[in-house]
């Protein structure tokens, strides 16, 4: 069965309306990069505990970084119809925003393939945020994970993308 859908059409459905994994075998291999961002809002006290490393469960950001990287690698096990990819790199970084009492999360994924790595980057950010929440929920149940979005994409048939609202 061939993929006759256009770039502006949802492509996880076949001609009969059944779910399927998109056939990317005819696409050219190219360098693909995706960057996703998100945040975890918290109390200033929780942010300070994370910054000081003064948390009973250990280094929150180190654990969240590893969780995000592992999640990107397991994306096809978590997201239905996501292609299994051999990632060349995954990076997860954090910035403490003291003015807004939040941890900013950024994940970057890259590879050479026939399909992009947007879902891997978004999954890395999501799981890193959930890990921060999990490790800190005993001291701050009011944390909010949010603003998760694709920030940058390079490569592929649909071209480059840059989120211009930052």
UniProtKB/TrEMBL annotation:
UniProt keywords, alphabetically: Lyase, Molybdenum cofactor biosynthesis
GO MF annotation terms: cyclic pyranopterin monophosphate synthase activity
Main enzyme class: lyase
EC number: 4.6.1.17
Domain Molybdopterin cofactor biosynthesis C (MoaC): from-to ranges: 21-156
InterPro entries: MoaC, MoaC_bact/euk, MoaC_sf, MoCo_biosynth_MoaA/MoaC, Mopterin_CF_biosynth-C_dom
Source domain of life: Bacteria
Pathways per UniProt: Cofactor biosynthesis; molybdopterin biosynthesis
Binding site for substrate: 81-83, 119-120
Single biological process term from Gene Ontology: Mo-molybdopterin cofactor biosynthetic process
Keyword field contains Lyase: yes
Function per UniProt: Catalyzes the conversion of (8S)-3',8-cyclo-7,8-dihydroguanosine 5'-triphosphate to cyclic pyranopterin monophosphate (cPMP).
NCBIfam families, alphabetized: moaC, PRK09364.1
Family, per entry: Belongs to the MoaC family.
Identification of the protein by name: Cyclic pyranopterin monophosphate synthase
Species of provenance: Pseudohongiella nitratireducens
Gene: moaC
């Amino acid at each position: 069965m061939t993929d006759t859908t256009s770039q502006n059409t949802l492509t996880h459905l076949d001609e009969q309306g059944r779910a399927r994994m998109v056939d990317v075998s005819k696409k050219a291999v190219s360098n693909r990069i995706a960057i996703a961002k998100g945040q975890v809002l918290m109390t200033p006290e929780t942010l300070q505990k994370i910054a000081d490393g003064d948390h009973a469960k250990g280094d929150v950001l180190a654990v969240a970084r590893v969780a995000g990287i592992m999640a990107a690698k397991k994306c096809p096990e978590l997201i239905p119809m996501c292609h299994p990819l051999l990632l060349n790199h995954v990076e997860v970084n954090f910035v403490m925003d003291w003015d807004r009492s939040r941890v900013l999360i950024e994940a970057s994924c890259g590879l050479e393939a026939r399909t992009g790595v947007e879902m891997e980057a978004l999954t890395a950010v999501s799981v890193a945020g959930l890990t921060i929440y999990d490790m800190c929920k005993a001291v701050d149940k009011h944390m909010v994970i949010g603003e998760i979005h694709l920030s940058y994409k390079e490569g592929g048939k649909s071209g480059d993308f840059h989120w211009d609202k930052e």
